[in-house]
């Protein structure tokens, strides 16, 4: 989605693990992209391997940034994506919490 690689976030996560720094995971749930149970189960299993995670939060995708990007003339890859349903986000949150708790 971002077009970047995962090496820098991985280095950061390794440092956090090594230092025992408390960590909160915040993950945006995007309809038809990251909103499947399979995705959440995989995320939960990955988060479970990080010993110092104190909290996992799912954030429902919203479209508040679309107009700003349009005004600035920047392509917004998710411009046609609808907002994420908050109720489904809560259901997915429960899937992750069942795994990491």
Description:
It is an enzyme of class 1 (oxidoreductase). Keywords: Lyase, Oxidoreductase, Pyruvate. Its EC number is 1.97.1.4. This is Pyruvate formate-lyase-activating enzyme. By secondary structure, this protein is α+β, with helices and mostly antiparallel strands. It has a single domain (7-100), classed as TIM Barrel. It is 47% helix and 15% strand. The chain has four helices and two strands, in the order H-E-H-E-H-H. It has helices at 7-19, 37-48, 66-72, 86-100; strands spanning 23-29, 53-60. It has a two-stranded parallel sheet. Helix 2 (37-48) runs parallel beside helix 4. The model has no long low-confidence stretch (mean pLDDT 92).
Helix and strand arrangement:
Layout: H1 7-19, E1 23-29, H2 37-48, E2 53-60, H3 66-72, H4 86-100
Parallel strand pairs: 1-2
Organism: bioreactor metagenome
EC number: 1.97.1.4
GO molecular function, one term: lyase activity
Descriptors:
single chain, 101 residues, alpha+beta, TIM Barrel, two-stranded parallel ribbon, 2 strands, globular, Pyruvate formate-lyase-activating enzyme, lyase activity, [formate-C-acetyltransferase]-activating enzyme activity
């Amino acid at each position: 989605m971002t077009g970047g690689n995962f090496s820098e976030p991985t280095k950061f996560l390794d440092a956090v693990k090594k230092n025992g720094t408390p960590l909160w995971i915040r993950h945006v749930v995007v309809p038809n992209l990251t909103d499947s149970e399979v995705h959440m189960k995989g995320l939960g299993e990955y988060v479970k391997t990080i010993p110092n995670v104190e909290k996992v939060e799912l954030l429902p995708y919203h479209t508040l940034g679309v107009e700003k990007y349009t005004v600035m003339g920047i392509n917004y890859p998710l411009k046609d994506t609808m907002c994420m349903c908050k109720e489904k986000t809560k259901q997915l949150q429960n899937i992750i919490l069942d795994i990491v708790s």
